Please model this.
Amino acid sequence: MSSPVAKSQLIESLRSDPTFMAQVQTWHTFPAREGVYSPFPKGLDPRLVAGLRQRGMTQLYSHQARAFEASVAGRHVLVATPTASGKSLCYNLPVMQTLLENPEARALYLFPTKALSQDQQSELNETTLGADLGLKVSTYDGDTPTSLRASARETGQIIISNPDMFHSGILPNHPKWIKFLKNLRYVVVDEVHTYRGVFGSHVANVLRRLQRVAAFYGAHPQFIVCSATIGNPLEHAQKLLGLEVELIDQSGAPTGARHFVLYNPPLVDRVQGIRRGTVNEAQALAVRVLTSGQKAIVFARSRVRVELIASYIHDKLDNLYTDNQRIRVESYRGGYLPNERREIEKGLRDGTIQGVVSTNALELGIDIGGLDVAILAGFPGSVSSVWQQAGRAGRRQTESLAILIASSAPLDQYMVTNDRYFLERPPEAAFINPENPYVLMEHVKCAAFELPFQGSANATVDRWFPEVTPYLAVMEEEGTLRHTGGRWYWSGLAYPAENVSLRSATAENIVIIDTTGGKNQVLGEMDRPSAKEMIFPNAVYLHRDRQFLVLELDLQERRCYVEEREINYYTDAVVKTDLKVLHEDRRFPGPGCTLVLGDVLVRSQVSRFKKLKFHTHENIGYGEVALPEEQMHTRSLTLLLEGGPAADALEALTEELKGPAMARMGHLLKAVAPAFLLCQSQDFGVSERLRDPHFDKPAIFVYDQSPGGSGLAESLADQLGKVLAAGASLVRACPCSEGCPSCIGPRDPEHEVGLNPKEGVLALLDGWLGSGTPGT
Amino acid sequence: MSDLWEKLQAARSRVSDQSQTLLPPQRLPEDEEAPTGWSWFSPLVAWREFTFELEVGFWELVGPGLEPADWQGRLCFDTETTGLSGGAGTVAFLVGWASMRPSGGTGRLPKVTVTQWFLRDLPGEPDMIAALDPVFHAAKGLVSFNGASFDLPLLRSRWALAGREFPDLEHHDDLHMSRRLWKRVLPTCKLSELERSVLGLHRLDDVPGALVPALWFDYLRQGAAANFAAPLEGVLRHHAQDVYSLLCLDLLLAALKGRPEDSRWVGTHRLLSPRRGLARLAAEGLLHPDLAPAIPVDFWGLLALLPTEAGEKALEAAWEQQGTEALGLAWAQRLKRRRDPRCLALWEQLWHENRSFPALIEGLKWLEHRDGSPEAIASALNWIEGGLAHPLWPASWRESLLKRRERLSTRRPQTFHNG
Model:
């Protein structure tokens, strides 16, 4: 077990290490904060008081007491306080109070992942059983055996589930849940900040369907929802629920001093601005932390990087002459089997595992106990993710340390070099659009299946789906609804929820099967689009420090056969994308250019892959891939450079510079826009063309990566001015001479002979935005 | 995507252009004649029933030993639905059952009644439930084929949505026992298969169950005409036959269960022909009768129903008659359970005559653990040598024998080692 003293020593040793400190851009210490407490509320059931006292609690944090009072007063409540501030008591206390007063009452808890449900069930059992309250808590998700489902429905006073299960398993079968739904008093939705983008828009509709069905049985449940720190928790929660809620955002929980370090790895190529990679830097730092006896969590941005960092840490610790082999480090990501994940979580809690390398899968509130140091290998794409991930260190109100290692990516470099911008920046707002027609259409179908809509053919008003009439009309035309006798009856053959996945349009997972030595064992799983890019034939699939060669990817049967091999490289697909304009909805003037909102078809294909050597990451060869292309129908904002300052500025460039300057604009947009669009750079794609075949003009397409669109294109239309200004100031402030990965990408010495793309981009942006752009 | 935008736009303009849509007037039964044999219960709900005597040959076979309580008041029911996956949007548009009542005089055959309730359009569902509710509440029990997981939960849901509670009745799902009796002798245990192979009822031009929802929706889209019997003839016939077959099957199962040791069942292939009922249904234009009925009851399934003593008797007789390895092993197993040393001889015989590996292993276990005398150990080692001499056995079998030999060798008399 690590002691606070050892931790201070580690922090001191880092502070006094000149090599380390030379790369530290900022070392910021957030001071410790005292707790603000409230006595147990007057009305709190004595059995609950006894239970809390048994757990050593004599009072509540102020926000817990406020949440209890607001809930008991019948208001919908939103708790938005930092990680580890004791949010679960904010809902557990009012819920348990109600269930103790009325054992017939029911509560529903929704968590974004099955892992969190499991966690919550054990916590609840601890509190409820600890106080001997005898409340019946049941988890109901895809893993619940059929034999337990009926009893969960009948006797579960608290049902723990996730939005996906609620959408596809519970709502469509609501008559089986009549007893539960009739008595539904509380709905708890935790981690609401994860319900953003398209996923959030889906969940918002599921919650409307929930309220609609509950109302049919005469129940109007109260909501208690919790969010991590985001820019707009209140607005987000209200939009998600479609209800007015009371915001509680003053945390009464004490925190220890938190050190937050922005670390910029040393330059290895000053001219091109290339820095040492985050993978190796994270590995080195993690080893330093682990060997000093501290527990560490490393967050990496991709599944492959998680595997690489974990594997390199193992290599480093695997030294016969030291004691380091005893340090156990695991990798953790989606796609592992549930029991593997449970085992790792448990190991972290009970201290048998000292280090973990994870994707953002561990960002959520899964209880993994207290870790000492969080290492973020690369900017995770949003400021709120940074704080979530950093919050994984020092959960026990002791001093904690989080180190963000910047990658060469432009966004990372912008964040470290503008550390004030970063530190003072409010966390991103969460963005959802429940009225997104593509999303709404699917849920109107599900809702119609659940209960017929009532009303006439031209004026059907539903309290939860007020704008539903045209959707019903479209469905009637398609033959899936029948309007008769003043009601819209479902008349399709299918079970609509089965065809609607909340997470992405193609949620069908590929099962990865290990066939080494005649085995036939499920190793893990992966979604289909990722599978095409990561487990194509001859790809190297990394899984918990083992390497597998992909023998066959059977997309039809959704299976991927792999075999364990000793290989000294990993693979990285080269993805080619192509874009076609399908429909223009709206054309309107934007900052310096014309904007077009509309539909596009994005086609992507993996045609070959690179083989990259472990450790050095050098390219040692290519391979071919023959897989069908992935198609996606989505929304796009097109920036048309015609008849305006932007077009003039582009025209003013020399012929040779026009192409590079346009290409660099794409790079720059991808780099800067996520901070403004409340998304990750993977959420949208950029494609730029000097002469677009459809518009016959220079055009930059910014398209949504979610099929059908999630509103990013529309949002960019509003924010484009700010995005371009931020891009201009980034390029101007960048110390590089002719472009670097941090701004517009390095000069391509093969194709840009004698050109300086940076000058081109600056000239273009200056003309585009007019001179006095903010910067330097 | 753009098509959705356009469709929604078109729908919006259509919706706002329309002056005023009136609700379609409810049709009255007087307006339209019900199909022959059917009566309107309400404008959108029709029903019919027909009664006939049970086939004499079938009743002679299954009747002995059956009490009226085994069948009186039981509804052998089935539903046809608008979807096959269930869920709140799935409606039962055809609900029906076959039931039996004793006839008046002695020596006369019981009477079978087939009842069907048909929903002509979705708004009629509350009426249909209102009509069926008292019938189900008055029933003594329900019989279904796979109703436990499909039809019954569906009806419960429909009742719940209509604000009623479906009665909590005794329910027999005949699928389970049928599986036990026939899964090893029939390719599938679907009702249609049992019907053909066990009851000897044959269907011609049957509508596959999977097509039923689509047929009903087609009828609906074509205007839900009053004469539903013509377009849906196949569906109505399919359903009537299902419930009649279910009734026959249920009687047969009840008879088997009541007297499983009866000579009627064992080793015989009895002719069954509940065909008079068929003829009656055929006369109604509902069924096509056919011939060649037989029931090959699975011996093993039947064995599970027999009391211990009768089971052992049957097993011993079957082994002596047929002498197969499976029968011998099963008989030896029963003997072993009674600690009857005859089992050893039986295993030895199976091992020598049938080259049965399981018999060899069972024999070795007995010799090693039950007996354990030096003679028994020596004899076991002999058996093992015999087994190892078998050239074609898989490696895993050989390995298990080698392991056993190693273990047994250490148990030989001490003198053997010292000498």
About this structure: DSSP finds 25 helices and 32 strands in chain A.
